[in-house]
Amino acid sequence: MSAAIFVGGAVPALANDELMGMMDDPKQWVIQTGDYANTRFSELEQINKENVGDLQVAWTFSTGVLRGHEGGPLVVGNMMYVTTPFPNVVYALDLNQEGRIVWKYEPQQDPNVIAVMCCDTVNRGAAYANNTIFLHQADTTVVALDAMTGEVKWTKQNGDPSAGQTNTATVLPVKDMILVGVSGGEYGVRGHLTAYDMATGEQRWRAYSTGPDEEMLVDPQQTTVLGEPIGENSSLESWEGDQWQLGGGTTWGWYSYDPELDLVYYGTGNPSTWNPSQRPGDNKWSMTIMARDPDDGMAKWFYQKTPHDEWDYDGVNENILVDQEIDGEMRQLLVNFDRNGFVYTMDRATGELIDAKKYDPAVNWATEVDLNPESETYGRPQVVADYSTREAGEDTNVEGICPAALGSKDQQPASFSPETGLFYVPTNHVCMDYEPFRVSYTAGQPYVGATLSMYPAPDSHGGMGNFIAWDARTGEIKWSLPEQFSVWSGALATAGDVVFYGTLEGYLKAVDAETGEELYRFKTPSGIIGNVTTYEHEGKQYIAVLSGIGGWAGIGLAAGLTNPNEGLGAVGGYAALSEYTALGGQLTVFALPD
Amino acid sequence: MSAAIFVGGAVPALANDELMGMMDDPKQWVIQTGDYANTRFSELEQINKENVGDLQVAWTFSTGVLRGHEGGPLVVGNMMYVTTPFPNVVYALDLNQEGRIVWKYEPQQDPNVIAVMCCDTVNRGAAYANNTIFLHQADTTVVALDAMTGEVKWTKQNGDPSAGQTNTATVLPVKDMILVGVSGGEYGVRGHLTAYDMATGEQRWRAYSTGPDEEMLVDPQQTTVLGEPIGENSSLESWEGDQWQLGGGTTWGWYSYDPELDLVYYGTGNPSTWNPSQRPGDNKWSMTIMARDPDDGMAKWFYQKTPHDEWDYDGVNENILVDQEIDGEMRQLLVNFDRNGFVYTMDRATGELIDAKKYDPAVNWATEVDLNPESETYGRPQVVADYSTREAGEDTNVEGICPAALGSKDQQPASFSPETGLFYVPTNHVCMDYEPFRVSYTAGQPYVGATLSMYPAPDSHGGMGNFIAWDARTGEIKWSLPEQFSVWSGALATAGDVVFYGTLEGYLKAVDAETGEELYRFKTPSGIIGNVTTYEHEGKQYIAVLSGIGGWAGIGLAAGLTNPNEGLGAVGGYAALSEYTALGGQLTVFALPD
Ligand SMILES: O=C(O)c1cc(C(=O)O)c2c(n1)C(=O)C(=O)c1cc(C(=O)O)[nH]c1-2
Ligand SMILES: O=C(O)c1cc(C(=O)O)c2c(n1)C(=O)C(=O)c1cc(C(=O)O)[nH]c1-2
């Protein structure tokens, strides 16, 4: 059995060689995902499974902002860049001086945007390219900052917060462009991915998630779905009337890029509203993995994971690009741990569906995904009628659906180690009751249409999360570590055979990549929903993570909500978090003793 | 030469034996000052000068509140108590579970109080006694909380925030009472010390700092000043008209207690306003060390350090009670490092002035304190006319006064080691320009009357602080460590021959108690204005400190002020702090590796 992380070979002429070289340098961490393939794997091995137990805190930094701290620090040369939740401060810290502040960018944003952010005031961080730090603010201002001075090079408005358009995602620098998404699925926002010129901020293209082919940048003949041409206006036909205009499919998750295939990958979110009776049809192309040509945005292939969503299983989780041997054949894979509880293994060149399996045995809303290419329902989940909120109808509370709306896994990114060939996945182990109700649309107002309550998966270990190792070659969970709360932090695997993740109580944990055995834990100041990163500075390997409870799971603490159904249903299930942690906003940097 | 820390001998019948026993137990830290004598010394020696370099962060805790974190954690048995700035949250943390939150008390206070707090929203922490945690909130609510459950036992309103009466100080439990002060010298508040019954909250007595003898609890014959009876209505005669009613002399600093002498010691703040021309006279008894009988509050002796203040040198700093040999004789001393730059050594039984020396050579507003008992000006500072803001008169800017208004040392408490016989003093090395102007009084409005600007002491090391070792037996600085910013953190000396303090940049530092050599430093998340404490849990010694930039020195960052003259003149001098640290609110706990 062999496994190899994606390594760029012959790349197109326009490639951003400098940036790709920096991504290949394990000492730096220049985009949020670490690399284009979204593996979150580091070749560094000074900290390894033999010595990780000796880890110490090297230095710390308070960001001066409370609420959920997602994403993580970037490291570019001797500089570290840290981004905060709203108001989205960016700090440039000097690693030669234990984090002395070289510059600080503090945008003036209208705080009204906070009210139209569904799931806390999070921001998944900035990205570096071409001596520039690119940030996409909550109010959808895209900003380019001189990496040395913090000076604003250009700003561009990507959306309209008064219509519920906001942003929480990072941006992806590809070639000479910056790709950016949009949030607002709970406000009837119609999602899109937009490319801006890195140097000038000029818009290159915009691809909507729903609507007419021209606006979706879809070619009825060339764009494929499971190997077949997509056909004309495939989205329009899957909605009643003009509902696609309020159709959601927002693009608030992670973006990947394969420089060899020259394809960008990302997923689209839930169709709006959460009341499925208001939107008959498959609601294309919400809940879809999309592969596009970055040069013009044209769609190469789509795959809709959850047609006609009835549970808010946004399809935006990271698509991890790995080359692995499946049934004796090396394949160019895209692996996606979807919110709906299935992990999809696809051929990333063609969009072929290779496998789809539950990665949490608690998943009950569907029995399986039809993998038979000859079948009428090829590629579709086989929905269990008892858990269909559409069949139950409006104003009926459907109980015991697993996973809950925040999925078997939300945006917290998994990691892949080419050394073990395993995926390390932060998961939720949460179920829900879901009662849809009719809503009408008003721009800038919540457009949700369901009342939810969440609780730990029943008949299990009693906790709300697991940290698992998944083998995509066999489609099996190798090991699973029960956690009291959802694991809402991104994982990091390293060549030291160690995997790191954070917990909502605030622990940074290090486990053995082969066995899952816990090797180290440290209680950081606040709950961790940030993503663990690593870098090397002056010969020393560091591990860095942001603390600051929040995100959807921590919304009760972050926004001071106590009614169990508030926070889109998350407050009740995570109420016990207040016995472990309080709001924060800190970076903790770890290293081995000298 | 010998030195001994005060140890209680025969104590009066009403003594709180349990509490005094807990203060004597170095494993616990039950009141903010560590002990009644305010030595901030610990007998613990597991961490010592040989191994302190190996110190590691054991665990951390974010308080969920930003701005200045003064005071420090209490440790009572297995429980730790942490208090935050406004809104004055109290956390009870379980030390057996790395700070799991056992209970949280979060008062609902009118946020309007923030506007009438002169020097940030700080609170110098809670105190423990009789299974109760006592807290004095910003809005002057005194509250008694069940130490196990956090349940409110009683609350009492000590003042009126709408008239500018607020609180930042800790409380002192003495016998069956709680002693509490009041802030508001910049709002024309007339200071007082008040005793409440520990069990019921009933008021026992209140002693004003200014006014008629009955209200000041002064006996014209029995109360002495430098050995002489104080005489009738000594305060009233030292003010023009009714100005004493707006006279300041607030009591926002530290309180000490000598159980053997059965005397409580504390200092009073500046007279109001800062424009001396509006208040001719000595302005008694502002700027005064007071010794009182805790049972009825009656004054035993007073000593006014800065008669007719012209520089805002509040006299509230801690009075450290030590027994040391002076000129071959063991003396019961009270040592006070005053804001005005003189350290006063007094006989704490009689109020005799033994010595007064400058502890920062930069001090220039007075040449010396007259120590000749035969002199007309006995006990008075010899003011240098050039630096008299009264002589210059209203609307004249007096330049180059040292120290600045925040003193050679502000409230940040010093520590005394009976092992070295030295005092370890966090100091400011800052000078100022001071321009008084006429103001009129409106209740609840600032009543300041001077424009200040501050800067590092000229012709020196360029920094704004020093951490010094002072020998009261010889009246000399033993060593002095230059710091870029004022040292605004309280010191801790231990039997391990180590002294700890924090810096405004956020470093916790450990130095050799004899030589001052730096043995360890760690960059905590935010600037440190908290006081370092230590305790033992399950056989292990811990060092704990709060980070969170603020207080008067950090007011620019804390309140988001940028005009150099804002923040009562402190913003400009400390502007460079923003290159080192951002707002925070974290506890960092250190220990040696296992
Ligand atoms: O539909 C959307 O536009 C949208 C946006 C976001 C977001 O931007 O954070 C989340 C979600 N949906 C969502 O469904 C969700 O579970 C979620 C979790 C989080 C988070 O950061 O913890 N954000 C979001
Ligand atoms: O006159 C007063 O009532 C009063 C109150 C306070 C306070 O309560 O914090 C300070 C001061 N004055 C003051 O003069 C001063 O230097 C000061 C510093 C600080 C601080 O916590 O950093 N508080 C205060």
TrEMBL record, chains A, B:
Start and end residues of each Pyrrolo-quinoline quinone repeat domain: 29-354, 489-543
PROSITE patterns: BACTERIAL_PQQ_2
GO MF annotation, one: oxidoreductase activity, acting on CH-OH group of donors
Disulfide cross-links: 118-119
Keyword Chaperone: no
SMART domains: PQQ
Co-factor requirement: Ca(2+); pyrroloquinoline quinone
Gene3D superfamilies assigned: Quinoprotein alcohol dehydrogenase-like superfamily (2.140.10.10)
Binding positions for Ca(2+) per the UniProt entry: 186, 270, 312
GO (cellular component) term, any one: outer membrane-bounded periplasmic space
Domain of life: Bacteria
Active site per the UniProt annotation: 312
InterPro entries the record matches: PQQ_b-propeller_rpt, PQQ_MeOH/EtOH_DH, PQQ_rpt_dom, Quinoprotein_ADH-like_sf, Quinoprotein_DH_CS
Pfam families documented for this protein: PQQ (PF01011)
Cofactor descriptive note: Binds 1 Ca(2+) ion per subunit.
Top EC class for this record: oxidoreductase
Enzyme Commission code: 1.1.2.-
Sequence positions that bind pyrroloquinoline quinone: 70, 124, 168, 250
UniProt keyword annotations, A-Z: Calcium, Disulfide bond, Metal-binding, Oxidoreductase, PQQ, Signal
Family according to the record: Belongs to the bacterial PQQ dehydrogenase family.
Name this polypeptide is given: PQQ-dependent dehydrogenase, methanol/ethanol family
Organism: Rubellimicrobium rubrum
Phylogenetic lineage: Bacteria, Pseudomonadati, Pseudomonadota, Alphaproteobacteria, Rhodobacterales
